[in-house]
Each structure stands twice: as C-alpha cells, then as structure tokens.
Amino acid sequence: MEDLKEIFPESHQIPAEVQVPFTEQREYLIDGELREWTGNLAPVVSPVFTKQSDGTWTQQVIGKTPLMDSATALQALDAALRAYNLGQGYWPTRSVAERIAHVEKFLVRMRTVRSEVVNLLMWEIGKTRKDSEKEFDRTCDYIADTIKALKELDRNSAKFTEEQGFMAQIRRVPLGVALCMGPYNYPLNETFSTLIPALIMGNTVVFKPAKYGVLLIRPLLEAFRDSFPPGVINVIYGKGRETVGALMETGKVDVFAFIGTHKGANDLKRLHPKPNRLKAILGLDAKNPAIVLPDADLDNAISECLTGSLSFNGQRCTALKILFVHKKIVNEFLWKFTEAVKQLKPGMPWEPGVSLTPLPEPGKTDYLDALVKDAVQHGARIVNENGGKINRTFFYPAVLYPVNEKMRVYVEEQFGPVIPVVPFDHDEEPIQYVVNSNYGQQVSVFSSSGKTLARYIDAFTNQVGRINLNTQCQRGPDTFPFNGRKDSAEGTLSVADALRAFSIRTVVATKATDENKQIISSIIRNRESVFLSTDYLI
Question: Model-level pTM greater than 0.90?
Fold first, then answer.
C-alpha cells in the first residue's frame, strides 16, 4: 500500500522527453480546410495527478478541444456528400492506384509525428509507453497491410469471367458517405481499422475521434488535409449526442462504423430514418471467458490469463473478463495467479516496466469499487493483497473468488482490473454460461487433452467468433477475421474483410458474342474506362 500511496509523481519527477505542452486546439478539418472553432472548448483531462509545492494533488488538464455544435457537424457531412457526389465525385471515381497513392502519402506523414502521438496516448488514456508505441506502430503496419491487401484484391478483380454464355468483370466499389467513430482504449489503432479501409475503397468520411484520446488526432490533421482531396476526410469534435445524432437524423450517412457499446450503437442507428440503406460495421461489448481445465499447463494458463485480464488494466473488448477454473486446481491457480498479480508494477505510463496505470474514465474507480462490494456482499472474497485499493484514478486489481450468478460482475462487462474467478465441476457449467450470454466475441480454453478441447470447440463454434486454445483472447494477427455474435459485433473486420465491408461488388456483364468481345477489348485497349480494365498493381 505504501507504493500505491506514492504512485503519482511530483512535477519535477516527470522526464522532459514525455512531457506534453498544454494545447488549446481550435482547429478542425472540413472540406480540405483547417478551420478555427470560436465556440466553447472541452477540457482534456489526464488520469495523471501531480503533487504541487503546497502538498496538494492536482489532476492534469493537458489541453482543450472544440465542443462543436450540430450545425458545424452538418457542414462536415455536406462536405463529404459533395466530395462523393452520389458516386460521381473525384474520389469515388479514382482508380485503385490513385487512391493508394493518397493513403501512402498520408502514411509517410503520419510516421513523422510518432513521438508526439505516443506521448499523448500515455497522458490522455494512461497507456504504458510500450503499449502506446506498439499501438502507433501496429496502426502504421495495418495501413501498409491494407494497401497490400487492396493490391491483391485488385489483381484478382482484373480478370474476366465467362459463365453460361456471358462474360463479366466484377469489381468492388464504394458505398457512399461513412461515419467513423473509434473507442477510447485504442483511439488510434481501432479507429484507423475502419477509417483507412473506408477511405481507400473510395468512400468519403466524417470522422469523430474517441471521447478520450481525442487530442492525439491533432498532430494528424495537417497530414489528412494534405494527403486527401477536399471533403474526402472531415474531422469533427464535440459531444456525440449533439454532433453524431444530427448526422444520423439526416439519413444521408450510408455507412456507420462504430466501436463501443451495443447500447450506444443501437441508440444512434435508431436515429437513421432509412435503416435499410444504412450499413453498420460495429465492434461492441464482450464478456470473454477463460476456461481452465484440470489437465491444463497451469503456468501457461496463469500467464495467459494474467495478460488477458490485465493488459492495459483490462480495458480491452478482447480482455478475459471472467475466469472459470476447475475445482480440482482452483486453489493452486489462485495462489499462483495472485502471486503473479503482485509482481506487476504499478506506476505512471512512461516508467520502465510498468504494467498497471491510472484509468482515464471519470467515475471508473467508483464503478469498479461498487462491483467488488456487490460481489463481496454475495459471498465472494478479495483474494489478493491490496485488491480493490484506490488512489484517485488508480485502481489496484481485485481478484474475486468464488464468483456466482448472483453477482453483477458475473454478467456485466467490467472493462477494468477486476478479475472474477468462478469454480466449476462439470463441463456444462462454463458451456452454458457462453450459450446463455448476451455476448459472443471470443473464448479461451486451457487443456492438454485434444479430446477435451475438441468438445469445447464444437460447443462454441456457433456461439463466438473465435475460440482460443491455450492462449488469451485477442484481435491479432490483423489478417484473421475479427467479429462476434449476439451483442458483440456486426460485420467482420480484418485487413481483407474490412475492404469488403466498406465496399460492394458491381458487375459489368454482356453476352459473350464476338462483337461484344471486340467492344470490350477496345475499351480496355484504349483505357476508356476506370472500372473496366485488366491493369493490375504489383
């Protein structure tokens, strides 16, 4: 506890290379212009506190961002509509090679602001330096992989198909105007996992940064402006209720890309007056369980469950949020697991080797504390030393045991460092938990028996999007499909799947007569059509 009392630094203890200047941002991007907002601003509050000379502690405010209104948000939508121009605009009619060139230009510019964005990730959401650097680099890799995947898709589309007396070429074309919104826990990577595919496939975009992790987009505004034609990418700020709601109510948004809660997604989708014309690509809630069986490699299971439940303080949709451990091994598991939790270093995001950091959401520690108290009231114990202790925005991980169905944490997605452990005797207990859950993203199963794993695989293939064997739940590699069932997702994301999600196949077909073949050959030979072409990218 003494370490937890001293977890926040004095101002002079913060290394100069990680400090960020106070930034009053008034710029926003609409129609290729960085405009200045003259209205109210929203403070950007860091989860980091610092000790002042008088001995008091102050939560750091590192900047301000525009608190835009619905009228300004609608200007951004109008710019995107003009740029798309019902599919006749410059951007949607560009060739794949031309759109790729714009995205490559953006990627070059993006890499120049790495240190600035990484520092803002640490200060805005409390992500460790290592994970912040990983998020930035992984995002750059994702963009490069997206370009590579689009080239491959274009190569496969360059051929003609002949079937039943018809010849045709099938290519993917954009859907229209996309509204992209990302989550605060991965405000760069998960946001760009929808934003970049939407852009590169020829859609125009209105982009609203996450509610926390908003200031870190500012270093990229000029890169967006200089890399894309006017109106292709528009960046707005403010409260979602005021801005995004107004956009959806127009019925002019064609694609809704959102990563957040299913309630937030449903509330926004209901505002759209033409639901049959709205395509939604959603990454939503999850309550991913781990199931540890008696014959599991216990050291591996503990290592994977520790990282799975506490990486970035458990603030990941793919985090392990409930652990089912067989009664035969639960005591040994708990002893080793709590010892492993004790080895995790708490501290500030920039400190070497730190694993546990402050939480960015206001009121989050109170919410987690209420979950713990509810579990204790219904028979659970906090089994690890200092579990659930709070210092301002810092919450020390709480391992709860035994957890049962009467407790809120049994069903609620805690999205934080609370680890509920459920003992079980029979396979059907964790299986029925997954079957009856409102969520269906992923599950992890730990066993050394192929027969046992096969039983769980077959039980879960129609319940979740991914079954992890002897490893934690996770999104990567980015080439794997990332989806979910029930309230956990809508649509599939991966490098290749995202390109398909933000586009639709269009067919140009004709009867395969000699005359028609000559006409098609003439169009291709003279390069008279952007769509109809046998050119492909290497």
Answer: yes
